[in-house]
Amino acid sequence: MKSVINPGCSFPKWNRTIILTAVFVIIFNAVFTKTFAQQKPWATPKEAQIIKNPLAGNAAALAEGKKLYVTNCAPCHGDKGRGDGPAAQALNPKPADHSSAAIQNETDGALFWKLSEGRNPMPAYGKILTEQQRWELINYIRTLSKTSKK
Ligand code: HEC
Questions:
Q1: Could you tell me if 79 and 87 are in contact, meaning their C-beta atoms sit under 8 angstroms apart?
Q2: What residue spans define the domains of the chain?
Q3: Whose Cα sits closest to atom 41 in ligand 1?
Q4: Exposure winner among 76, 93, 139, 145, fewest CB in 10 A?
Q5: Which residues of the chain fall short of a pLDDT of 70?
Q6: Ligand 1 residue neighbourhood (C-beta within 6 Å)
Q7: pTM for the complete prediction?
């Protein structure tokens, strides 16, 4: 496409302005998303919420879950799941408090889905742990409720 005003240049001035504005908007958007978007509530798709826990009530799975939690999750979420592990201070957003009512009110399926998907800075454990290990962890998270004696 040749410009009538400036035949040597294939982009007229106003066109360049539009391109520059578009580039600016894309960069701004990327920075904005990285800085603020993760503060948004973390919604779970409906189909994930209703996934059933195949290990619900399984005591052996719970013991395994505890071991996995201490090794993999406690550095961020803390030993008691309060979101106060040694790495937590440096993180934004802060690790979830697994003992809170908000987390305990979520379904096993929803927690399993979030654990599997991850969200920066939390890794996607779907790629790191087996399905069995992830359900074992959900069983352990259930014992971290503030009202639980365990
Ligand atoms: C690098 C630090 C880090 C590690 C390690 C980590 N998490 Fe997280 N986790 C986070 C952060 C930060 C969030 C909050 C993310 C958000 O809200 O965007 C989170 C959120 C979650 C949530 C979602 C809570 C909710 O409903 O909003 C679950 C479930 C969870 N973590 C489980 C685990 C388990 C289980 C492990 C161990 C296998 C683990 N996390 C390891 C940092 C971590």
A1: no
A2: 1-40, 46-142
A3: 73
A4: 93
A5: 1-11, 32-39, 147-150
A6: 38, 42, 72-73, 75-77, 87, 91, 93, 95-96, 103, 106, 111, 114-115, 119, 121-122, 125, 137
A7: 0.79
Neighbouring residues of 52: CB distance < 8 A, sequence distance ≥ 6: 108, 109
Other beta carbons within 10 Å of 116: 17
- Name the fold adopted by 46-142: Cytochrome Bc1 Complex; Chain D, domain 2 (1.10.760)
Residue nearest ligand 1's atom 6 by CA: 73
Rounded Cα distance between 75 and 108, Å, is 22
pLDDT given at position 35: 61
